[in-house]
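worker-3 :: picked 4-hydroxythreonine-4-phosphate dehydrogenase PdxA
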Amino acid sequence: CEDSFRQAIYVAIDVFRNRQREKVARANPVRKQYYEKRDDSDKLKLDTVDED
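worker-3 :: tokens ->
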């Protein structure tokens, strides 16, 4: 009983530390320098049949 309580406390401490670490890591995100433009005009059209 005492071991499981101790383990629960250690898990709670780990969760707390991980949340704090993630909070610090996400505090100042780097902004995107560019935006991807999705242009499908140059994709291959493999599902069409070319009839010559």
